[in-house]
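Dear all,

This email documents one entry for the complex benchmark we are building for the journal club exercise. For each entry we list the sequence lines for every component of the assembly. Then comes the predicted three-dimensional structure of the complex as a token string, followed by one or two observations. Please use this as the template for your own entries, and keep the labels exactly as they appear.
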Amino acid sequence: MNFLRTCLVLILLTAPAMAQSEDAFTGLGSNDFDAIGAAITALALSGDKQASPTIHAIHDETLYAAPDGSLLIKADAGYVDARTGAPVADVVEDDLIAVRVNNKVRRAVDAALGSLDLFAATPDIRRKAAAAVFLSRDPAILPALAKAIAGETNDSVRVVIRQAQAASQLANPDATEAEQLAAVAIIRAKGGLEAQSLLGSLRDQTPAVANAAGEALTALARLQQLWSLVQSVIYGLSLGSVLLLAAAGLAITFGVMGVINMAHGEMVMIGAYTTFVVQEVIRARAPWLFEASLFIAVPLAFLVSGGIGIVIERGLIRFLYGRPLETLLATWGLSLVLQQAVRSLFGANNRDVGTPKWMSGATEWGGVTVTYNRLTIVVFAVLVLAALLAVLRYTALGLRMRAVTQNRRMAAAMGIRTPWIDALTFGLGSGIAGMAGVALSQIDNVSPNLGQGYIIDSFMVVVFGGVGNLWGTVVSALTLGIVNKFLEPIAGAVLGKILVLVLLILFIQRKPRGMFPLKGRAVEQ
Amino acid sequence: MASMRHWLRGIGLATAALAATTMLAPQVQAQSPAPPPIKIGILHSLSGTMAISETTLKDVMLMLIEEQNKKGGLLGRKLQAVVVDPASNWPLFAEKARQLITVDKVAAVFGCWTSVSRKSVLPVFEETGNILFYPVQYEGEESSKNVFYTGAAPNQQAIPAVDYLMANEKVKRWVLAGTDYVYPRTTNKILEAYLKAKGVAADDIMINYTPFGHSDWQNIVASIKKFGSAGKKTAVVSTINGDANVPFYKELGNQGIKATDIPVVAFSVGEEELAGIDTKPLVGHLTAWNYFESVNNPANKAFIAQWKAYTKNPKRTTNDPMEAHYIGFNMWIKAVQKAGTTDPAKVIDAMVGISVPNLTGGYSAMMPNHHITKPVLIGEIRADGQMNTVWQTSGTVVANEWSPYLEGSKDLIADWRAPLSCGNFNVVTGKCGGASK
């Protein structure tokens, strides 16, 4: 009897304690992903003021479970108790287990943060929150959405919240048909791939809703067809600008000087490695400069590659003028030497060149997603080309270069030191290749083989455009880029490339001098 | 090119000689009538495009051999590594393999990475009767008497990954994206047949191939995004190989495709490949392997510590093919001890049934089809470039070297034990070599 009584007392004593620890936070320390997800959703709806920091901590993967059942958030200064927000001292880090996260949990976190952040102070955060709710389509959030719409002051944010409300309404089994039809109309007006995805999932709704969704889907798909044409053109221009950057230097060394420079790709590669070195130095010495690292790398890459170019011209190529076969072999050998040198210096593995924040992400132009890094490269290509044309057209050096390439002996008779001009011209071409390397480091792997991938494309562009004609190079790069991007969806990436090559060979057969051949006596010499 | 190759070959031989002398020096002094060492061939590319992946495997072999020598060698003899460099040149693989077997007289060879290099050396091993340990996940559809496949067959990697996505992410639409060569093409053929057998409509499967080193992923990623917005959950199964993965993942990140919307599960992306990129945009994308560096158990921790000490680089990662060599090497040691000789013919017979600990906390056994049993792990990429195991098979999985989902191979089995001793036995006709390979 005594024993029973003790038991009863014990149960009575422990019961409230158990109830206290079994709160919305408990499930977060679970081993089961479903339980964690459910706990997050419950926590978000609980109205607890610690819900937001805790769920943010899961999002940032800084929430840990301690063996005693408490949850700790790792902050800069130390650990904070997730339930109370009070700092915790003497944490044994080895005993902590990170709260388990997988995609299911991440989705729950996104949805929960969406519902919590709907009332944030900054309109931008509210907009993002509404977009997250749109994707999660949780009918449980509908009351919060209604409240948010009523309290919203920013018109554009209110539109996004309305869309989120419409999406959640379509997932709500209790919604009336009229409400759902109105929701379909809002989604249709929104447009875009997310809207299509949502409308496509409505096939098993009531006939009226399914029909309305089907109609909306057809209309959006038709629009999408048009956009995909625009997309091919834009992506083609982007590819063209990459080709242009890679080929612009070659248009000088091969096009203007006539040197078959097989080591051109390695000048590009050296430019990319210059970027890597600049970033390494910045990371070690001045991390705050990182966002500007590419601006520092561009002139340095020009100088490094240009300097190496001048050395190559003085040390090797000047002995080989007028002997194209020997030049080809010598520069090819040189390209192998440069590759191996870089491999010995930096190792065979790819090097990680970081992307500054302002170049990450993408922007939507109607139905086309354009990434910032590609956009930056298009602008950069235009700037490089403009600078190159300006140098050739308006500077004394450019004048001499043109004079020497048009009539070497006459230029020499006028007092121009033609060997020196040769070296500088080659240096200019190589330097531009180096600047291209900075751009390519953002979209391709920085490895010793980087240049090999671009050398054939570069020659293709220069020959197709017409040797010795810079504008020809521009038109040719953009043409090849766009043709490639139109062929790719139809024929696939592999066959597309082959087709471009075959078309090019046929074209060169008909017009060996390219699209815009130079005319006049200078050519005949 | 020829002179270049000669030069590289020279370097390869020089390193091999150097490694051999440094390793041998102490023992020669210790024991007066030293028995000749047992030679082990290492056939991994140390230059060219595959050097990035294969150099690591050469290093891990040297480490394992050094370790075994510290334990007193094998059968009272020391082990000696013979390193050659086939330079990512497929025909050269066959040439180097022949050199290892006939000139250096090695007892076994550990090597190859790409399927095309394995196909290139296969006739050499079958002709000379020597042994090859092949450590990389591959497309299956092969079983040779002389090859021990310590990497995963498709049913030990690709199919469990697809099952995981179907069950846990409710994926209904599939993009099969790969590099254009034999491994992705065969794997995708198997996966396509498997998905169709599971009731996935042809419209819900998109197959895309790109060349090696592809860098402009803009419209492929855009088309994946478009394919993924048909109202059904979509996933990408990636057999994209090599460094084309870096711009691919970058483009995914930039175009805002998150793992929570369209997860990508990759079969050729490991810790080594992720070491060179910013992994923050990739968090949550999946990989399927039989081993992760992050696996938490004492054997793995010891292996990692040993590897970091051996390479004197605390940042070096470990990966799945390294574990495969670890298993394969230990199996070979056990088989030689069991057979009491290094004679390849006897060792081959002794290999089947050998079981050794793997690094994920279990045992891997050599099966009669010359493939090993392995656990399958699905991991999500973490922000630090490691994998977070989100699912794993309860036990180990036996390899289906001949896929049951392909018309030409579903009736075939391999069993190298006597009396069957056949790599492609047709169970319907009852004949060996009954179907086209």
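Observations: Residues 161 and 415 of chain A are 73 Å apart (CA to CA). Chain A touches chain B through 59 residues (CB under 8 Å).
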